[in-house]
Automatic annotation (TrEMBL):
Keywords: Signal. PANTHER family: ARABINOSE-BINDING PROTEIN-RELATED, BLR3389 PROTEIN. It comes from the Bacteria. Pfam families: SBP_bac_1. This is Extracellular solute-binding protein.
Length: 460
């Protein structure tokens, strides 16, 4: 697929890209004042992340070079593709940066930011000059989304894309159960009440709430973290401590018990390697009533044309609602609704020799024109509200995420130890699904947490 000048394919929140720009110096190749920039990405035309590779080759490079030439700046940008596993790319990138041969600009999964910043590989944007601080693009990126690119109170980059979690529900099943077609629960109790009504239907699993280690990070992102936010807590506090067996976590695990120990969810799906995919298929067949998922479910799973579990009647049959706090006002700062998001962030290397020019390229890539081109013909959530308003107008669900979900969302802690904490949370939910008392599961989680982080860094 070729990228058009005014269209472009958006980032997928689940993909960890790696965009790099290496400035070789004005005289590095003996051609006067030309600055040579190398763009490397974990993407390759015809392979992994092919549309991102095409974007760099067919839009970013010619447009940026032309824009700089118009200002009297001679820049040559070369694209170096890659197409390896994300973790392999991350390791290679870290080794390059450690040896001092790494890129000037690169893209990280949001949860890698703290790790790279603590290693000294990332330059705070404030260090590049006033242009980064005064960039007009910040006004178009919601504060909640900007937090994706912030670590320890310092802005390190620009969010490259994001997503949001919502409750999806099956309108036909809701009608059969006597539930409203336009459903918006305001508490966990209302979710459970809807589940109990759906339980009266034959062959229907009322609620799918991702649990266990087989579901992996989906359990944490589409389960524990948004629910924990709904109690007013977060897994990592502002004072740098990890949440242990807190009242909020016990409430979250209690909700898992209400779902699975009361027969409102299918515990077998949580134990199967392909359980999440099976839950998608069951929803599409009208066998699951409520499912907590990201907007990927709408655009990538039940999409009538390109979905892995396509629903021809998606727009009429699939409803979506905000995830409520445990009770009205119980969320962060008294919020009634909550969500969690993922995404990528583009950053500058702390070793770049051309921070101002590198910032110009970074800002150029996140301009309204570039991001609009990036979306292309497949609407997706971008970090820019002004672009979303234009490109999502025909998609009510993605517009809903942009307007209602992103303002109340939160992000995972960008720390190296987070993946290990996430596994502990997955294990705690698995225990509850298997019948363990929520308080016991929370206590076991805290014991495991002490083996992963310093006990003094845990509360309570």
């Amino acid at each position: 697929m070729r990228v058009q000048t005014n269209r472009l394919v958006a980032l997928t929140g689940a993909l960890a890209l790696a965009l790099t720009v290496t400035a070789c110096g004005s005289n590095g190749d003996g051609d006067g004042d030309t600055v040579h920039l190398t763009v490397g990405m974990n993407a390759i035309a015809g392979g992994k992340n092919t549309t991102e590779a095409e974007w760099v080759e067919e839009w970013v490079i010619p447009e940026f070079e032309a824009a700089q030439a118009a200002r009297g700046v001679s820049v040559e940008v070369t694209f170096e593709p890659s197409g390896v596993d994300d973790e392999q790319y991350k390791s290679r990138l870290a080794l390059d940066l450690q040896s001092g041969t790494g890129p000037d600009i690169y893209t990280l999964d949001g949860i890698w930011l703290g790790e790279f910043a603590q290693a000294g590989y990332v330059r705070p944007l404030a260090d590049t000059g006033q242009a980064a601080t005064d960039w007009d693009g910040w006004a178009q990126i919601p504060d909640a989304v900007q937090r994706l690119a912030t670590f320890d109170g310092e802005r390190y980059g620009v969010p490259a894309g994001t997503d949001g979690r919502v409750l999806f529900y099956h309108r036909r099943l809701f009608a059969e159960a006597g539930l409203p077609a336009d459903w918006q629960p305001t508490s966990w109790a209302e979710i459970l009440a809807a589940g109990e009504a759906l339980a009266r239907l034959d062959g229907v699993t009322p609620i799918q709430l991702n649990a266990g280690t087989a579901m992996g990070e989906a359990t944490t992102m589409q389960g524990v973290l948004p629910l924990l936010a709904g109690t007013g807590e977060s897994i990592h506090t502002e004072d740098g401590r990890w949440t242990g067996a807190s009242p909020g976590l016990e409430r979250v695990l209690g909700l898992y018990a209400d779902v699975y120990q009361a027969g409102l969810g299918d515990p077998r799906l949580q134990q199967e390697a392909q359980g999440r995919d099976k839950s998608f298929e069951e929803f599409a067949r009208g066998e699951i009533g409520i499912l907590l998922e990201s907007d990927y479910f709408w655009r990538g799973v039940v999409n009538p044309v390109t979905g892995v579990a396509p629903m021809a009647d998606r727009d009429e049959t699939v409803g979506y609602a905000l995830v409520p706090a445990a009770e009205p006002g119980a969320g962060p700062a008294g919020a009634d609704f909550v969500s969690t998001s993922g995404g990528n962030v583009r950053v500058l290397s702390s070793a770049t020799e051309h921070p101002e020019l590198a910032w110009e390229l970074l800002a150029f890539m996140h301009s309204a024109e570039a991001v609009t081109a990036f979306v292309g013909d497949e609407p997706r959530i971008t970090a820019r509200s002004d672009v979303n308003e234009r490109v999502l107008g025909d998609d009510p669900m993605l517009t809903f995420v942009n307007e209602r979900v992103l303002p109340v969302t939160s992000y995972r802690p960008a720390l190296e130890v987070y993946p290990r904490v996430s596994v502990l949370l997955q294990e705690a939910t698995a225990a509850v699904v298997g019948g363990t008392d929520p308080a016991r599961a929370a206590a076991d989680y805290r014991d495991g947490l002490e083996e992963v982080v310093d006990g003094d860094d845990i509360t309570p």
